[in-house]
Amino acid sequence: MLGLYLHIPFCAAICNYCNFNRGLFDAALKERYMAALLAEIASDGDGAAADTVYFGGGTPSLLEPAEVGALMDACARAWTLTADAEVTLEANPETVTQERLAGFRAAGVNRLSMGVQSFRDEELWRLSRLHSASRAVDAFRAARAAGFDNISLDLMMWLPQQSVADWLASVDALIALEPEHASLYLLEIYPNAPLGDAMARGRWSVAPDEDAADMYLTGLDRMDSAGYVQYEISNTARPGRQSRHNLKYWTDGEWLGLGCGAHSTRAGVRWRNASSTEAYISAVTGGQSTAVDRRVLSAEERLEDALFTALRLSNGIDVEAVKSRYGVDLWGRFGEALRPFVDQGILLYDGRAVRLTRGGMLIAHEIMTVFIR
Ligand code: SF4
């Protein structure tokens, strides 16, 4: 089954840490982008079955519900959406009201992923977010009142001036709302991000590395105690409420990315669309291909990707599945290089699966290098 990803590259303001493909909202540009996106959907559709749709961004909740409805209708014409398709919309708290949320729900969205990042106002202010903690709580309640019974909240840890106790206060506030899913990320400060300058000006610092590790481990422990089950390095959910769309990325699945900068992987071929919004719109309106970097993955690349992504999962890499899909004896090939991590207690191998312990997830990138030939 395919997953469909639709990129909406507009934001009401640009957050000082952001490294995503996005730009400032512009109503005229949005009109042209919507037309291009609808045209790309119509031309790419081949009727194949799809069981997830994901509106990511940027800030997709800046779209009008009718626009989301038009995109959903176009997808339903272009592909065969299953009756139980998971349809996720990323939303920022300041963009939604109960009425708009009810509109998204009526348009076919059945899962919301809300970027909260912190439940402490001073942290939100340092990140230049447009919403307050109480606005995020109100948005969550409005989503429930609008009929959403599948909501994910994002939080970020290791924020400037954030202590372990501060972080846990946000985790507790999240748990109190009882969302079905939560994503807990470590903030990465990119070299050119304005946040770096803001930190220098404000003399803000981040907690030492060992505190970051403590935030990750204790945050997830609290989620465990509240009945959530971690299924990926940064993701935890109530049983049965994992993100079906994101699992496609981590389980060797197939997906089509529509819109500027969106990536696709299908039938062993990978490509991405032009990143710039204008370049994407002119390619579509000029009747040219939007795809750049299209290439057939080699068997080795497919294996490498499958191992990288499966190791992110709590279930780890299924040794038998790798053997039947790629004809590779995982432990025979990589066992010697993986053994030291097993001896350190950060990687587990029971003959059937290779998986990271939670401590191992903190240094997953180091362990993944074993798979690079
Ligand atoms: S709302 Fe999200 S995509 Fe937009 S600037 Fe902020 S972090 Fe980036």
What does this protein look like?
- With 373 residues, the protein is of the alpha/beta class.
- It contains 15 helices and 17 strands.
- The strands form four sheets. The protein has a nine-stranded mixed sheet with strand order 9-10-8-7-6-5-4-1-11, with helices on both faces. Strands 12-13-14 form a three-stranded antiparallel sheet, with no helix packed on it. It has a three-stranded antiparallel sheet with strand order 15-17-16.
- Helix 1 packs parallel to helix 2 (65-78), helix 2 (65-78) packs parallel to helix 3 and helix 6 (164-177) runs parallel beside helix 8 (209-225).
- The protein is globular and about 60 Å long.
- Bound molecules: iron/sulfur cluster.
- Residues 11, 14-15, 18, 20, 22, 57-59, 92, 115 line the site of iron/sulfur cluster (SF4).
How would you sum up this structure in a few lines?
With 373 residues, the protein is α/β, with parallel strands linked by helices. The protein contains 15 helices and 17 strands. β4, α2 (65-78) and β5 (80-91) form a beta-alpha-beta unit.
SSE layout and pairings?
Layout: E1 2-8, E2 10-11, E3 23-24, H1 27-44, E4 49-57, H2 65-78, E5 80-91, H3 98-106, E6 111-117, H4 121-126, H5 133-145, E7 151-157, H6 164-177, E8 181-186, H7 194-202, H8 209-225, E9 229-232, E10 235-237, H9 244-250, E11 254-258, E12 263-266, E13 269-273, H10 277-285, E14 291-296, H11 299-312, E15 317-318, H12 319-326, H13 330-343, E16 347-349, E17 353-356, H14 358-361, H15 364-368
Helix pairs in contact: 1-2, 1-10, 2-3, 6-8
Mean pLDDT: 96
Q: Ranges with pLDDT <50 over ≥5 residues?
A: none
Ligand names: iron/sulfur cluster
CA radius of gyration: 21 Å
Number of helices: 15
Q: Strand fraction band? A: 15-25%
What is the tally of beta strands? 17
Q: Which structural class matches the secondary elements? A: alpha/beta
| Main sheet characteristics | 9 strands, mixed
> Given the C-alpha coordinates, what overall shape results?
globular
The percent range for helix content is: 40-55%
Strand order of the largest sheet: 9-10-8-7-6-5-4-1-11
